[in-house]
Amino acid sequence: MLPSATSAILIRRRDYGDYDLIVTFFTLSQGKVSLIAKAAKKSIRRFAGVLELFSEVDITAAVGRRSGLPVLQEAALKHPFDQIRGLPTRIAYASYWAELIDVWMEDQVVQAELYHLLRHALTELDRGVTSEAVLSILFQMRLLRLSGHRPNLELCGTCRKAVDALRPNVLAVDLAKGGIACLGCLPCSTDGPHLSKGTIKQLQWIADGDLARAARIRFTPAAVSEALGFLECFVPYHLGRQPRSLNVLRQLRGNRP
Fold it and tell me: Taking the model in full, what pTM does it have?
């Protein structure tokens, strides 16, 4: 059972029967949890306007009987992030981040730093000041670090030469080895992801720097394209599946950042 009034962000919802919903939250104190919201589709008072995707709410739950899932008792809206749902590209980015958490995180594994990262990314996406693409770079790099899949951007994964000693300026990425590769170990193919040394340095900083300042780092259009091309290959490879939301995002974006 969830503790009273835990903060939560709604990352998935699906129909359950004629009137109910199964809602998946990423919570601050309990990690990822799925609950059943009784009569959520027919009640105009109980959950009206509260169970919208990406909203942050305070929730309480009780032990369920029939479905085996805890039952959502109360949900009080904290931050609706309604500006996200007004633009298709914002919905697509938020859906991609939510799907990554839903697939990557096991149930009831507390990860407070990841919760604050998602909340920060949704807040900035809702405000519309920071580039959507840069926010996605920030989110993915920090998710990789928190999940233990941080890419090796310091040295060649095969010969172990440091990046500063490698030539040329643009390096290939070896997805299987989890990071960059020098020209001698993996020729820089136009088909696979690649990174320039400048983009590598920006990715390293955005993964570790102060969260409030990290999204304000200035990426050139070329660096944004490189970083997204790399991360949107690297993340699904190590996730072990292609997120459906990423396909939608790429279609909306026209394969451009």
Answer: 0.93
